[in-house]
Predict the structure.
Amino acid sequence: MLDDVHVHAPLARRRFLAGIAGLAAAPLVSSCVTRAAAQPALVEAQLVAASASAQLVPSEHPSTAVWAYNGTVPGPTLRLRQGDRLRVRVENRLGEGTTVHWHGIRLPNAMDGVPDLTQPPIGPGESFLYEFTLPDAGTFFYHPHQRGYEQIARGLAGALIVDEREPIQVDRDEVWVLGDWRLDRDASIRAGFGAFMDVSHNGRVGNTVTINGKVPDAFRVRAGERIRLRLINTASARIFGLDFRGHRPMVIALDGQPVEPHAPEGGAVVLAPAQRADVVIDMLGAPGSRHVVHDNFYPRLEYRLVDLVYADEPPLRTKPLAAPIRLLPNPLAEPDLARAERHEIALTGGMMGDMSGLPRGRAWAVNGLSKGCGEGVAVFDPLLIFRRGRSYVLKLVNDTAWHHPMHWHGHSFRVISRNGQPTAHREWLDTVLLAPDETAEIAFVADNPGEWMLHCHVLDHQAGGMAVCLRVT
Ligand code: C2O
Ligand code: CU
């Protein structure tokens, strides 16, 4: 049932990815396609958003009623190759409207999945066809953009992996979808979405962390092997700082975009909501040994996330693989900093900040406004209008006491400075984390026309006013 379909011009290959609900657990994909095939493929998939049940916590505890794509949490991993075209039919079997946003993919505006901005919401019982080409290789994900603070927190999110045409050599390529859930003692999802307490503080941080939809215990490895680990933070609010003690992860990509390979600053791989990191880890521990991966992002709240458990087998090799780990860059336009137009974007509000004058239920403002973008905001009233093909530098100023991962749709941007200091790696991101009182300058070419959201990916902050529209015309 997951078989290939006939050849479809102008793309040489065509195949079908994620099956209908119920087939969801079937192994998905790219393995059944010849790696050598040079032609881009048209890849078809179907995602059905519906209620489901998931065993998030160990099996001596009850399962959890979730909202899921194709019955699984996270949803199926959609895996393609750079240059392929993805055609996904999304069917909504939820009791409310939804959309799908393809986070970090530089796609045409009409496919961006922001309700009331780029498309009407997909009503209950309705479907929508998304179709776009994947210009960049890397680690991405998909999620709803309607009432994300509830729909994502109930389980709607999945990985979207775009393989390089010339991948680096590793022994294993693994995806860790990091999730964070606020559960009650019976493992059910606690209600109270959008509570002002969460909106005005650090969002709906949960109490149960999962990897690929399960509270993890062991991640099995073999001594000597090289693993490319694709980390995706799908949490509503939790920031992770993953400390692989006894190992030396090398960051090779951030938010899907290649970066000069480097050890993470401070030792831990930091991932704010919506951020991704690709790390290469040489498993240099001894056969039979066990190593704890800690999450130490929040001071004094460090916990054990999972153990790396080494098999007893002898090492796969005695010396780490010599193969290079640097990825080829994606085709991003380089901003012209000398001629860039500059703007400042100030984030204000929140508890211990200035929330005066904000509409009811709102806690945050962008340049003094708390009007939001899309999602019921019918008037397209962009904060800034960019001219297509021009370079821009935005100075993002976090004038609040809270962290904000700021995501811009439809583009990737270079982070060129933080607090006035040039960044070491000038990394390309689509979501930049601003610590309390931090300032960051981002630079990009506005090369994708349309109405694009800029918002905080702490989903309660987004709903609470930290969202604006920017237009590229
Ligand atoms: Cu991950 Cu506006 O989205
Ligand atoms: Cu925020």
The two ends are 43 Å apart (CA to CA).
